[in-house]
Structure formats: C-alpha cells, structure tokens
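User: Predict the complex with fe (ii) ion.
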Amino acid sequence: MESEELRHRILKQHEALREQIRSLEVLAREVAEAEEGGDLAPALRRGAERLLRRLEAHRCFEDENLGPALVGADAWGSERRARLTADHAEQRRLLREVFTALRSPRVHPAVVVRRILHLTDHLKADMRDEEAALLDPAVLRDDVVGTDVITG
Ligand SMILES: [Fe+2]
Ligand SMILES: [Fe+2]
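Assistant: Here is the predicted structure with fe (ii) ion placed in the model:
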C-alpha cells in the first residue's frame, strides 16, 4: 500500500469514527437529560460498545500499517511511531475505564454519560493531532514507503 492510499484509508476511518462519535454524543446527552437515564441507557451502552469495537480495529490497523510506514519515512520515524504507540496506550486505558462503567449495572447512567463524553472529547482531539502530526503528506511520503512493509 502506498502512503497516499494509507492516508486516505485512515482518514476515511476517522470520518466514520467521527460520525459514530457524533451519534453517540447525541444519545449520551439525551440520556443525561432523561430521569435516571430513562429507556435510552441500554442503547447508549450498546452504542458505546460498538464505537469501542470499531476503535479497536482502527488502532490495530494503524499499529500494523501506519507505525511501519512512519518508521520507514525518515529519521524521526521511530519517534513518531513511539508517539502513536503512546497515544494508543492512553486510549486503551481510557477505554478500559469506560468499558468497566458500561458493564457494571450499578454505575449510574450519569456517570456512564460523563465517562463517554470525556472519552469522545479525547478521541476527537487525538484524531485531530494524529492527522496534523502523523498523516501530513510531508511526514508520510510516497517515495519512501516500501511496499514490502505494508500489505494490508
Ligand atoms: Fe490512532
Ligand atoms: Fe487514527
């Protein structure tokens, strides 16, 4: 896969994630406004679990494809990959927190809502930073990405 295609695929995944995040935020706010979460709380839990699954797939895709492409791009590649890895580790930590809240029936819907909105804020900022720092055409260049490095 060439770096242009890789960038295009990641940006497309980001768009899909943003779309899903927007719907989840709407639902989270509705739950927050309803008394005790109303009937929407189960839908919020399901929606959040769907987002978390998609995120997991996205992170794996980036770890497998973007990481090696960055390393191959230039002398700062290893540092950039380290940043990607650190960002993903932080995402995993936050996600585990949200998962725990989602799966525990004793956690009040208001707390679930707060955790979800904190996570979605974090994810939106992460995608913005990732696009600026790691997906910029000056960083992820076509001429230096080996086709043997990336196949997926
Ligand atoms: Fe990422
Ligand atoms: Fe990403």
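The chain has four helices and no strands.
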